[in-house]
Amino acid sequence: MKRGLIAATGVAAMLVSVAACGSDGDDDKAGADGYKGQTLTVWVMDGSSPDGWTKDVKAAFEKKTGAKLKFEIQQWNGIQQKVTTALSESNPPDVLEIGNTQTPSYAQTGGLAELGDLKKSIGADWSESINKSAVYDGKQYAAPWYAANRVVLYNKKIWAEAGIKDTPKTRTEFFQDLDAIKKKTDAEPIYLPGQNWYFFDGLTIGTGADLVKKDGDKWVSNLADPKVGKAMDIYKQYQSFSKAPKDKDEATPQQGEVFAKGKTGAFIGMGWEAGIAIKANPKIEKDIGYFTIPGETAGKPEGVFLGGSNLAVAAGSEKQELAKEFLKIALNDTYEGQLAKEGGVIPNKESLQAQLKGNPAGQAAAPAAATGGTTPLIPEWAAVENAPNPVKTYMTAVLTGKSPAEAAKSVEDELNKRLSQER
Amino acid sequence: MAVATERQDPGPVAAGVRRGGPPPGTRRPAPGAAGRARLTGAAPYLLLLPALAATALLLGWPLVKDGLLSFQNLNMRQLIQHLTEWNGVDNYREALTSEDFWRVTLRSVIFTAVNVVLIMLFGTLIGLLLARLGSKMRLLLSVGLVLAWAMPTIAATTVFQWLFATRFGVVNWVLDALGWHSMAHYNWTGGQFSTFFVITVLIVWGSIPFVAINLYAATTTIPGELYEAAALDGAGGWKSFTSVTFPFLKPFLLATTFLEVIWVFKAFTQVFAINEGGPDRLTETLPVYAFIEGVGNQHYGMGAAISLLTIAVLLALTSYYLRIVLRQEEDEL
Amino acid sequence: MKRSPLARLWPNAAAVVLFLGFVFPVYWMFTTALKPTSDIISEDPVWFPTGGTLEHFQKAMDAENFWTLVGNSFIVTLSAVGLSLLIALLASFALARMRFKGRRGFLVTFMIAQMAPWEVLVIAIYMLVRDGDMLNSLLPLTLFYMVMVLPFTILTLRAYVAAIPKELEESAMVDGCTRPQAFIRVIFPLLAPGLMATSLFGFITAWNEFPLVLILNKDPGAQTLPLWLSSFQTAFGDDWGATMAAASLFAIPILLLFLFLQRKAVGGLTSGAVKG
């Protein structure tokens, strides 16, 4: 009760300060050159923004506002505490890239500015599946920047060797193809380690399962739900075609490097992972093909986890208006389209998907985006994904012989503990 | 690097040079003594002042702050909004009643014990070996030891990940080549025991040089006459070791063990970087546990409480040695 | 006493085996860094690189601000080590040579200070530094690194000071030196090995420090090399060539320093290690 009171006061204080910042911004807006002499700092993650995009956006922004723009590339290592502490500082970065699934936890801290008016002015046609993560408690706390989802990367040579003419349109066809590779070639049909958890998350989205459910006012594990079990069965079926370790994820070893050896029929990964394979073995480039992960029926692709990022404005930034100016420029059709084109990522609007033309990986990914989903968009979820992610533990348990129900039971306590951690 | 040795047993040799007891044949002038007494009034405190001030300000203050945080509910939101939410002893209660904490504590103690025993045992053996080698071979081995010793922890950890990599890792290749084919693609970080094995090899590899080189240096100060005397008494190799070498080195070994206990117990980079405490949190030692609970899960108050408990455990582990130091310093000077 | 050939052989054989064991990881780091990628990910390890490439090193050094980071690392490390030596010298002299009330207490204080688990204190430190408005500066970093190595430096130097026969100092005083003069002229030169040994320890500790700089200094202009090295592991995943090149670059200054100082330091260990 006391804590609630303190928390409420805190939020009130925060709102006041945001309001104050907002009015500062309004003052600044006075002249066209009102921003002159200011510098806007933008944190983007390593690998997110292509060079051409960065350069063009910077030029456009500086021309329009007269202010300077500074992109600071952030490394992934320790990024969460870095962002948390940065948001607590008096001079935080003004705009930050925040992973879509992490946005709710930052939104609930009060560290992000509310962007409802921005959504009104430029966000009318943001894809709903992509924008979902930027909304918390009914309020817009970030602007969707881009999304990315997994596709099947396959080795055309091996598929041809197995006598497969066309890429599969349904999951059943896909399994038949894998079986053909297994029988007719000496290649591993698919490389799928036991803990490719985002692929599994996509499968649960496909079966309509929820990983968590509400129990009173608390979130608890829903892994025992038969729909989750069904998704896991599908995963297990895929995994039975692979010799990959059951207790590792797709990054150890990098599945692209395994694929690069040319002895693997396919793997499920991000489009850019082809680059890893090509780097390890340039000769593989001409053999790599992509297709959308097929679903149960031909018309509807498999559910996918939509990774991606939002751009948020720090509540403590003193340049709220300038930050919004930046977002208006960076997210307009020209630059959002350029990002999709250069980066091969799914843009935040369906109308811009045409920019993916000429990018086979992006084109394979795009069809699934509309029906994609994310991990549960609750602040509590962030704790679940901290290593060791209990869902990964669950996956390994099922793959090594436990029934989904048993496996769910064995990790439930840990999962619930993490979901109930005080915020 | 040398070890601050707290001499327990004066040993036969050092008495002459040892501080304390009136040095034989001292030329201390009588008038000087009075001057010294005056000088020693404030001087030691003045000399210690910078060190104490720095320690109090830069270590004491953060510790106090950490203590205060440990009684707070401090998560992302509170940190970002600069809120202070006291929650009494909740963090301590939660930590101390959780099975995890005790399991991790026990694991840390065993982990420390195993590593320290291995380090001291092999460090001592290699140190004695150095003493036995000819000068060329000694130089060769010393260079090897120094290279291992000098590898920065982060770099060494990275290298060991590469050595033990599942695919293309040279360790697996060697095991396979030696006929142990099931190890060809062995995943070292897949299990608790194998992960600890890698961490232990890394730590022991990196820590032995310190012990071995210092121990060798120490043996060179054992006067030859002692061995001659022992030989006259008919002592063989083993006997002269137990009657001369070991007693002479005992204080050194004790001090080194103390340091190794601290260093191994606190080892963070090695344990964390190899497998981030995994699989399934089964290789978390106390510092890693404090870090994951506090910083990783962003429950900073909880992390603070665990970090203070970690210090308490370490103090308990080293209390034996600290007591010896206290007792012995009483007799000195 | 003549030893049988076998008895002479086994220590040498053991030495060679141990040498290989200790050197191999270092060797493997450097050779991996120099090998072309195809040799790194090959089913059979390439033990001796044939064609070397500097490609991995280029990639590693290609990082933005690389030289700023190098500069920062050196500034912070050298200042931290220098300061701690200075402060420790004063303190160790008092602890080794003087008799005063509370001496044991101070000694134990430093022993306990040595146990501080810095990794888990970072948030407390961060909040103090943040509230003192000192973020993104090399100064707090330097000071904290200094204190991280201070206890060890004091305790070790104390042993070195204690090992220097008092008579030397006293005879200097008889010859008309004041105590500080005696210290500077007589003791200080004899302490050189001790100073080197402790500075090695300080150097390696400060050079390695990672968790603190990660959250104190978010401005890329105020960061240090460990951040750069650790970013490799995540940014390049299993790109072992570049990672090993980065690790090599990171290790080289320390390896050189050790090889350069170790002879003198080890010589000095004799006094420091035993004659506590």
From TrEMBL, chain A:
Residues 409-423 have a biased composition (Basic and acidic residues). Residues 1-22 form the signal peptide. Keywords: Signal, Transport. Residues 403-423 are annotated as: Disordered. InterPro entries: SBP. PANTHER family: MALTOSE-BINDING PERIPLASMIC PROTEIN, MALTOSE_MALTODEXTRIN-BINDING PERIPLASMIC PROTEIN. Belongs to the bacterial solute-binding protein 1 family. This is Extracellular solute-binding protein.
UniProtKB/TrEMBL annotation, chain B:
Keywords: Cell membrane, Membrane, Transmembrane, Transmembrane helix, Transport. Residues 1-34 are annotated as: Disordered. Residues 105-321 form the ABC transmembrane type-1 domain. The chain crosses the membrane at residues 45-64, 109-131, 143-164, 193-217, 252-274, 300-322. InterPro entries: MetI-like, MetI-like_sf, UgpAE/MalFG_permease. Its main location: membrane. It is a multi-pass membrane protein. It is found in: Cell membrane. Belongs to the binding-protein-dependent transport system permease family. PANTHER family: BLL4140 PROTEIN (PTHR43227), DIACETYLCHITOBIOSE UPTAKE SYSTEM PERMEASE PROTEIN DASB (PTHR43227:SF8). This is Sugar ABC transporter permease.
From TrEMBL, chain C:
PROSITE patterns: ABC_TM1 (PS50928). Belongs to the binding-protein-dependent transport system permease family. This is Carbohydrate ABC transporter permease. Residues 70-261 form the ABC transmembrane type-1 domain. InterPro entries: BP-dep_ABC_trans_perm (IPR050901), MetI-like (IPR000515), MetI-like_sf (IPR035906). The chain crosses the membrane at residues 12-30, 74-95, 107-129, 141-161, 182-207, 240-261. The keyword Transmembrane applies. Keywords: Cell membrane, Membrane, Transmembrane, Transmembrane helix, Transport. SUPFAM superfamilies: MetI-like (SSF161098). It is a multi-pass membrane protein. It holds the Pfam family BPD_transp_1. The keyword Cell membrane applies. Coiled coil: none annotated. Signal peptide: none annotated. It is found in: Cell membrane.
